[in-house]
Write a structure and sequence with these properties.
By secondary structure, this protein is α+β, with helices and mostly antiparallel strands. It has 2 domains: 112 residues, Aminopeptidase (3-Layer(aba) Sandwich); 174 residues, Aminopeptidase. Helix content is 35%, strand content 32%. It has 9 helices and 12 strands. It has a 12-stranded mixed sheet, with helices on both faces. A hairpin with a 6-residue loop joins β3 and β4. This is Acetyltransferase (GNAT) family protein. It comes from Nocardioides szechwanensis. GO terms for molecular function: acyltransferase activity, transferring groups other than amino-acyl groups.
């Protein structure tokens, strides 16, 4: 077996990487949301000025049998790195995952990263016993956090969405809720970036502390460009103060030709909580997605298991838990 850097602009290599990623992440999770090749390669090739991605392939002769990606943050949390490893199901238990993990952890250390993180999706009943947990723990990783993955079946009844919006409006007077599709206004971008940067600090992260993320209008534009390259649409619904500052936001990415939507962040500024703004923006965003993409039948989200406020909103809307996303950490 040979480990080699991957040329992300080589279409043949990327098709093999996508095949492995798709097959590997579906094992034991049949029915989980899937990314098309176009979505996968657009995400891999789209730049993010806030992080560096290092792509590695494991090869048996000339056949790719595993892929690994190391993400190193460049603008904040620069002592940390995050990695992903996926092995072709036909080549599991042959040392491929171990070789990729060791290589990426060593690379992180060589680059001065002292905290290395990853996650894995595990059935609730196997959180303490799953083989992926044992794999990581035998290599010095410990559990850092648990998030719960939830699905929401669409469509939702119009009356239900109106009821949630009306309930939110009882306390959200004075804020204006607006939705932007496929772009975000330049005059609001700086304010949105300030809010997005706080998410890493205020959201539950278990045993790992994060400093505020440096989110810039440039990175926001890069994110929107990536989504467009994937063939997806971004729905950003925000609550605005009278002086046009973003007080709350929620983001949905929608497969234009598929049936899945993916929930990114939902966050309320710490100075504007207690006004049901989280429910207000989520209800409006879901209404807009349904109106524009009636073919979408599922939304996927995940939240920290101790994030009671967001869990309450998600359960009120109808999200149901499907699996655990267990995060692990190794410190130098």
């Amino acid at each position: 077996m040979d480990l080699r850097p991957l040329d992300i602009h080589d279409d043949d290599l990327m098709r093999e990487a996508h095949r492995i990623d798709d097959a590997g992440t579906q094992v034991g999770r049949e029915g989980a949301p899937r990314w098309t090749y176009d979505e996968y390669v657009a995400a891999v090739r789209s730049p993010d000025s806030g992080e560096r991605a290092i792509h590695v392939g494991a090869f048996d002769d000339d056949r790719m049998v595993g892929v690994g990606i190391l993400y190193e943050f460049l603008l904040d949390n620069t002592e940390k790195a995050w990695f992903e490893v996926v092995v072709d199901p036909e080549h599991r238990r042959k040392g491929v995952g171990s070789a990729l993990l060791d290589h990426l952890v060593a690379q992180a250390g060589a680059d001065g990263r002292t905290t290395v993180l990853t996650d894995t999706k595990i059935p609730f009943a196997e959180v303490d016993t799953h083989h992926q947990r044992r794999f990581l723990e035998t290599r010095g990783f410990t559990q850092a956090n648990i998030e719960v993955v939830r699905h929401l079946d669409l469509p939702l009844a119009d009356d239900a969405i109106r009821k949630w919006a009306d309930h939110a409006a009882e306390k959200s007077g004075g804020y204006r809720v607006e939705t932007f599709v496929g772009h975000f206004p330049d005059e609001l971008a700086e304010s949105l970036c300030v809010l997005l940067g706080q998410l890493a600090v205020d959201a539950p992260t278990g045993t790992v502390d994060f400093e505020e993320e440096v989110m810039t209008p440039e990175r926001l534009a890069e994110r929107y460009a990536m989504t467009a390259a994937q063939g997806r649409e971004t729905f950003e619904t925000v609550a605005l103060t009278p002086d046009n500052q973003v007080a709350a936001q929620t983001t949905l990415q929608v497969q234009a030709d598929g049936t899945d939507a993916f929930q990114w962040g939902t966050f309320v500024h710490r100075e504007h909580r207690g006004h049901r703004l989280g429910l207000a923006v989520k209800a409006v965003n879901l209404r807009e997605v349904q109106a524009r993409h009636p073919h979408v039948t599922r939304v996927t989200t995940q939240n920290g298991e101790t994030n009671g406020y967001m869990i309450d909103i998600n359960e009120q809307i109808g999200f149901r838990p499907v699996e655990a996303s267990v995060e692990f950490v190794k410190r130098a």
